[in-house]
Amino acid sequence: MALEDEFNREVTGIRVSLTDRCNFDCVYCHNEGLGDTRGPMDAQDEEMTAGEVVRILEVVSEFDVEKVKFTGGEPMLRNDLEEIIQRTPDSMEVSMTTNGTFLPGRAQDLVDAGLDRVNVSQDALDREHFTHLTKSGAYDRVLEGVEAALDAGLDPVKLNMVVFEPTAGYIPEMVDHVAKNNGLQLQLIEYMPEISGNPQWAIDIERVHDWLAERAERIERREMHGRARYYVAPEAQRRREQDSDVDTGMVEIVDPVENADFCANCHRVRVTHDGKFKGCLNRHDDLRPMGEMTREEIREAFRATVESRVPYYGEYFIRDGDGWTLNEKYMETHEPQPAND
Fold first, then answer.
1. Would the pTM of this model clear 0.85, i.e. be above it?
2. What is the C-alpha to C-alpha distance for residues 28 and 23, in angstroms, rounded to an integer?
C-alpha cells in the first residue's frame, strides 16, 4: 500500500540522484537543491553503490512506488547505470534526466536494460547561446544524443528548458522546433531563484502560460502537479487557416515557485547521491540518512520522510526583499522531525 503523508498525498514516485558529478557547468544549476557541489569527474566515495540504489528501490516498491527517475549531476557518468536500470524492480517505470552527451553509443543498451523514458536538457538551439548557458562545447553531441534516443525507441524524448532571463527569448524557436519534429516534447521549467540564486533572472511564468494558451490548438491538464499541457502547431502550418487537422507538439510548463497547487499534487520524494531521503526539493533541513542501509533502516527512513513532508514549500521558504528566507512563524508550528543518525 502506498504511503500517504498527513496532507493526503500518496507517494508513488521517487527521484534518485546517482552522482553530483557533471561534465557541464550550467549557470542555473542547483544540483537537486543541494547547491553547486560538483567535484572531480572520477567516481567519489560518497556515491551510493549500485547495490545500495537497487536496495532502496526494492524497499520503496514494497510501498507501491511505481516510478523512478534517475538524475544527477549527470547520471550517465555512472558506468554501472545500465546495471542499476536492469536491476530496478520490474514493477517500476524507469526514466532518466540527462544532458544527452553520452547517449550516442549507449542509448540502445539503456533501453535493453529497461529504460522507458528520457528527458534531455537543451536550453537553446543556437550553438553560441548553448555554450554560454552550459559552459560546454557539447552542442552537437547533445543533438546526436537526442537522435540516438529516438533511434533506440525512447519516443517521445522530452527536452528540458529552464525559463529565465537568459533563455526567455529562445522559447518561440524551441516551441516551433518540437512542434515540427515528431518524437519530441518540450518541458519549460520555471527558474527557481530561491535555490539557484540570481533572483534578477526570474521572469513572470504566467506570461509564458498566456502566450502558449494563445498559440495552442488544445490544452489539457495533467494530474501530476496539476500541470498544463499545450498542444502547439508549427508556426508555418498554423498560418494556413484551411488546415483543420494540424500536427502538434506538446509543451508542458513546470512552475513550482509560489504555486501551492503544484505542491498539493506532488507525489514524489528524492534520494541524494550520497544516500539520504529528501522530502522536498526546496527544503534543506530534511535530509534523512538511512544508516547502514539495511532494508529496515531504509523502510524507517522512508516512512519518516513521508510523514514529515510540508504542505507547500512557499509557506516554509518565503520572499525577503530580493532574497529568500525561512518563515520563522511556520517553523514555530511545524518543527521538522530530526533525521536519524
1. yes
2. 15
| Per-residue 3-state assignment (H helix, E strand, C coil) for the chain | CCCECCCCCECCEEEEECCCCCCCCCCCCCCCCCCCCCCCCCCCCCCCCHHHHHHHHHHHHCCCCCEEEEECCCHHHCCCHHHHHHHCCCCCEEEEEECCCCCCCCHHHHHHHCCCEEEEECCCCCHHHHHHHHCCCCHHHHHHHHHHHHHCCCCCEEEEEEECCCCHHHHHHHHHHHHHCCCEEEEEEECCHHHHCCHHHCCCHHHHHHHHHHHEEEEEECCHHHCEEEEECCHHHHCCCCCCCCCCEEEEEECCCCCHHHHHCCCEEEECCCCEEECCCCCCCCCEECCCCCHHHHHHHHHHHHHCCCCCHHHHEEEECCEEEECHHHHHHCCCCCCCC
More confident residue, 132 or 326: 132
- What is the Cα–Cα distance from 104 to 264, expressed in whole angstroms? 38
Q: How far apart are CA 156 and CA 125, in angstroms?
A: 18
* Residue 5 reports pLDDT greater than 90: yes
pLDDT in tens, 45-80: 789 999 999 999 999 999 999 999 999 999 999 999
Q: What is the pLDDT of residues 280-332, one digit of tens each?
A: 887 777 899 999 999 999 999 999 999 988 877 666 666 677 666 667 765 55
Could you tell me which residues come within 8 angstroms of residue 74 by beta carbon, excluding any fewer than 6 positions away?
Answer: 19, 21, 22, 23, 24, 98, 99, 101, 102
Q: Which CATH superfamily is domain 13-333 in?
A: Aldolase class I (3.20.20.70)
Instruction: Using the predicted structure, report yes or no on whether residue 17 has a pLDDT greater than 90.
Output: yes
d(CA 114, CA 92): 10
Helix axes 127-134, 139-151, angle to 10 degrees: 100
List the grid coordinates of 163. 525559463
